[in-house]
Amino acid sequence: MAKLISGTRVYGSATVDGALIAGAGSGFMNLVAFTTGTAVTYTLPSALQYAGAKFKATIIGAGGSGGGTAVTAGQMGGGGGSGAIVVAYITVVSSVYSLTYTVAGTTAAGTAGAAGAAGLPSSIIYNSITYSAGGGLGGTLATSVLAGGAGGTPSPSGFGTANVMGLTGYPGGAGGVMAATTNVFGGGGHTPLGWGQGGVMPETAAGQAGQPGTGYGSGGSGARNGTGAATTRAGGTGAPGLIIIEY
Asked: Do the strands 85-91 and 98-102 form a parallel or antiparallel pair, or are they unpaired?
């Protein structure tokens, strides 16, 4: 990023006052990523330890795991919802040179024959203000046609807070009995802004357990029973959360 610097410049025999020239700017040139940790204190780097300094925080909640199947042929569990995302541009306050962060881990697959588990939130607390990206909900058990798990909820949400963007996670695909509806998909919810892809429905004719979400914050897919298979299976795991600090 360039900035303008005022000053006096000499061009041949002429002196020009107040000339503006392009100089080197700071911009976001450094990145710190947190993939684990609960209520961890992070001291801001020296480059940020003055009032008015700015940093960007990207916070992603964990995805929900996919729903399982019961003992019915043709079932597909609902997909887990993706975690929310919060992107905040934060101005450093004098003498407040640390923050506390929590990063959600991978969401374990649900028990075979049961609904998926909800993902946990990721968050940071700076200057007594909490920025939280909620985890996605678990996928539904495939005993009837139901929507997949809802996406996680951000706080703050939307664009109502200055310099903060809160995006709700994407829901997982619906589950149910494939012979009864054409709306059964069971894929995990994708993470907003492309941070993760939801687990993809198993494609084997015999059926199999759900597939994990990939990247960060995506939901696991539901399990699938083939047309001739009747057994209990577990959904796929939800992808973990992530926090990135740029300055």
From this structure: unpaired
